[in-house]
Design a protein that fits this description.
Blueprint (H helix, E strand, L loop, with lengths): L13 H11 L4 E3 L5 E3 L3 H11 L4 E9 L6 E5 L17 E4 H4 L12 H11 L4 E12 L3 H4 L1 H16 L1 H18 L1
Parallel strand pairs: 3-6
Antiparallel strand pairs: 1-5, 2-6, 3-4, 3-5
Helix pairs in contact: 4-6, 6-7
Amino acid sequence: QHLALVISEKDNGIYDAMNKGIEKATGKYIGFINADDFYNEGALCHAIEIMKANEYDIIYGNMFMVDVETLEVKGVRRPKHWKLNIDMNLSHPATFVKSSVHKINLFDLNYKIAADYDLMLKLKKNKCTFHYIDKNISSMRNGGVSVRNIKLANKEAKIIRIKRNGILFSLVASMYLAMRRIIKA
């Protein structure tokens, strides 16, 4: 409801700034919203009810994709954490991580675009509990950093899949993703 702390200082990119926020956070859960994103009406209240009633490590929901020019909803991302081995489908503006988990699992600054994917896959591999809310938590205008730098995003995702799942699984996932792109085209 009220901002308790605002810090404006030089950082080494978005994930460094987010790590600084994690280290300063005092709440039970941490969520990030970017400059072009916003929480949908009533979504935070619903998420907070679930946070109060349960002890999940990660709570996540759907996210509207909004056209940057017309502000028209172009689609809804309905993520499933069990698909993380293949690709990042959770959206951090629609994800809340328990502070006690986040404080010992910061974003890896070696990744410029896909550190959120690395973190979510790491938390999944570490058996953190995920809970899906079938609600539209946030909205994101299309054209963000990962979309504008798709080659780097894909390269980092491939490196993360190899690191977290091994080379064989990463090859299978890469073939699956390539086939999915061909079928969509």
